[in-house]
Task: structure prediction
Amino acid sequence: MEIWINPACSKCRSALSLLDAEGADYTVRRYLEDLPTEDEIRAVLDRLGLEPWDITRTQEAVAKELGVRDWGREEGNREQWVAALAEHPKLIQRPIITADDGSAVVARTDEAVRDAMSRRPGV
Result:
């Protein structure tokens, strides 16, 4: 299991605390330092079952500068969004946990973190 975090984010710190309290085996990816590629973002989106606009933090200053709220939200616009997330990872919703069963969750609540921990192959 891997968790994408921004250490300055309280939701990320809360998720890490819960993972530690539950004794979960995980690796941390500080995605603002270890930038995800467009391919990695596409893979996480596939695991989440979401589109890039679903995990974009539209209130960030860079999102406003880019005007993402006005971008199309159709298949033809997907690559524009993916490219923006790769170029400006601060726009990525956090934390994201890639679960052991190949799925992923945006783990902004304790329930979502527990859901990710329960997603083990064969469970």
Remarks:
- The chain has a mean pLDDT of 95.
